[in-house]
Specification:
The protein has about 500 residues and is an alpha+beta fold. It has four domains: about 70 residues, no CATH class; about 130 residues, no CATH class; about 210 residues, Orthogonal Bundle (hpI Integrase, Chain A), CATH 1.10.443.10; about 35 residues, no CATH class. The chain is built from 18 helices and nine strands. The chain has a four-stranded antiparallel beta sheet, with helices on one face. Strands 7-8-9 form a three-stranded antiparallel beta sheet. Strands 5-6 form a two-stranded antiparallel ribbon. Strand 1 and strand 2 form a beta hairpin. Helix 2 packs antiparallel against helix 3. The chain is globular. The protein starts with a strand and ends with a helix.
């Protein structure tokens, strides 16, 4: 078998895309390996080639990624920087040391950067096992997820442990860390924003980051913003047109579609519906193995069955739990498994097999596909479809978790405590982020008016000729018979 398959050259051979291990052409075969595109880059002045996987299966996407990587490495070479991939921690340390050497900071500022990096930045931008993320692994979900994690830091296990009494801390004058029980102020989040943007801008300048990352603290009028979700109308449109996307019809009809593209559409279809019916974090769904799924788990007191998902403690939250999905999720998982190329006990549910480093393959394709899909949904009065919510906030795959919580609370048939346990968060987080739903849910209690006493004239008139009815009236007036029972007797008499 040829080492390079489907080889395509660009820019005079400076960029070469190719595939490997194309065993069969049928994408849903048990033995099929996803035809990932690899890139081979030649950087002027650099000995040898830079060869690595794009981790993408669509040629157009792989080409755009490889081209941006080529430009990034060329820029890094022109600036005299290393072409190696940096982790967040490696780059932060280099950035920190250079600022110290240039004496850019006073001692107070230096201490702030060290403290914040140790407590917040490094732990967040790391894998569950503690190893630092590579800079180019910082997907949109990872970037945006920082703010939710940071705002609720002191509700996490890590934050709770830091609040435990330590007699060596501050001469035992307090049992908690300073400000531990308070949510970060707007100014605090803006300081985080400034520091992180400096770090990422420096990384991009040195060719270590494929694109400039510019974070924006989620604050509005001094308050933390809620994560964008889908209201009832938009969710209805989402599910309606998602079927059209899956089938490649209407606004989503494509020319030259093949079996691989059809499979990717099916994958996105079932992935989106699963997230909306399970409430899992995107990262948790990404780590799911088929062995973690218990199909057809019975629901006590009913006829429905659900899929029970075991969430490993090695996910971002760091806690193991069993998630009870909605009944529809059980069916979606079954249907996806029927057509998935990867059905093994230890295979990843949504992303097939693991990459060489043991991590799931990147889900860039699904996120990109989701954004493209949202933009093409026809919505009257909108030019970008369902990309943004009514407040102008951009939706992502994570918005489906928010929608799940909103819909469950809106129905009013689940206790907040139970929902928090199922979603792997705290009751306080539910109350804080979904207060708008809870207020609506309590409308009946808030607006309740004490019913007026029934007027005497409201008592039904009973004909004297009916001894049975007269006896019922006597008992009703004496309080021995309920109104409902009395009215039924009169109706039948």
């Amino acid at each position: 078998m040829a080492y390079y398959e489907n080889k395509v050259e660009h820019f005079g051979g400076a960029l070469v895309l190719f595939q490997r291990n194309l065993t069969v052409a049928v994408p849903n075969s048990q033995t099929h390996r996803a035809p990932t595109w690899y890139m081979r880059l030649k950087i002027g002045g650099h000995t040898g080639y830079v060869t690595k996987s794009t981790k993408l299966t669509v040629y157009e996407d792989a080409y755009e990624f490889a081209k941006s990587e080529l430009l990034r490495l060329q820029q890094a070479k022109r600036l005299g920087h290393s072409l190696k991939e940096y982790t967040f921690e490696q780059h932060w340390q280099d950035w920190f040391d250079r600022n110290l050497k240039n004496e850019r900071w006073k001692a107070e500022r230096q201490n702030w950067h060290e403290k914040y990096a140790a407590r917040y930045f490094k732990p967040y931008f790391s894998h569950a096992d503690g190893t630092s993320l590579r800079l180019n692994e910082l997907t949109l979900q990872v970037q945006e997820g920082y703010w939710d994690w940071r705002i609720n830091y002191w509700d996490t296990d890590r934050g709770q442990r830091l609040q435990t009494y330590n007699p060596k801390r501050r001469n035992a004058k307090t049992q908690t860390t300073n400000n531990a029980k308070r949510k970060p102020a707007v100014k605090t989040l803006q300081m985080d924003q400034s520091a992180l943007n400096q770090i990422f801008f420096d990384a991009a300048q040195r060719g270590r980051l494929e694109r400039v990352i510019k974070l924006k603290a989620p604050v509005h009028n001094g308050r933390v913003k809620r994560r964008p979700g889908f209201d009832t109308d938009d969710y209805t449109k989402l599910t309606q047109y998602l079927r059209s996307y899956r089938d490649g019809i209407g606004a989503f009809k494509t020319v030259g579609s093949n079996a691989r593209h059809d499979l990717q559409r099916q994958q996105l279809y079932y992935f989106v519906l699963f997230l909306a019916n399970s409430g899992l974090r995107v990262g948790e769904a990404r780590e799911m193995l088929w062995r973690d799924v218990q199909f057809d788990a019975p629901v006590e007191g009913g006829t429905d069955t659900v899929a029970e998902i075991y969430v490993s403690k090695h996910t971002k939250k760091g806690e193991a739990r069993k998630v009870q999905t909605q009944p529809n999720a059980n069916n979606y998982l079954k249907l996806w498994r029927e057509i998935s190329p990867y059905k093994g006990h230890n295979d990843l549910v949504w992303f097939g097999q693991s990459s060489q480093d043991g991590k799931p393959v990147k889900f860039v394709d699904l996120n990109r596909g989701f954004q493209i899909f949202l933009s093409k949904v026809p919505v009257e009065g909108r030019t970008d479809g369902l990309v943004h919510d009514r407040d102008g906030e951009k939706r992502t795959l994570y918005s489906l978790r928010h929608s799940y919580a909103t819909m469950r609370l809106d129905r009013g048939d689940v206790k907040i405590h139970d929902l928090a346990l199922n979603m792997g968060c705290t009751v306080q987080q539910i109350e804080r982020h979904y207060s708008h739903v809870l207020t609506t849910q309590r409308r009946a209690e808030i607006t309740k008016i004490k019913p007026k006493a029934r007027a005497k004239s409201d008592v039904p008139v009973v004909e004297a000729g009916s001894d049975f009815a007269m006896e019922a009236l006597r008992r009703y007036k004496a309080g021995e018979l309920s109104e409902a029972a009395f009215m039924e007797i009169i109706r039948l008499t």
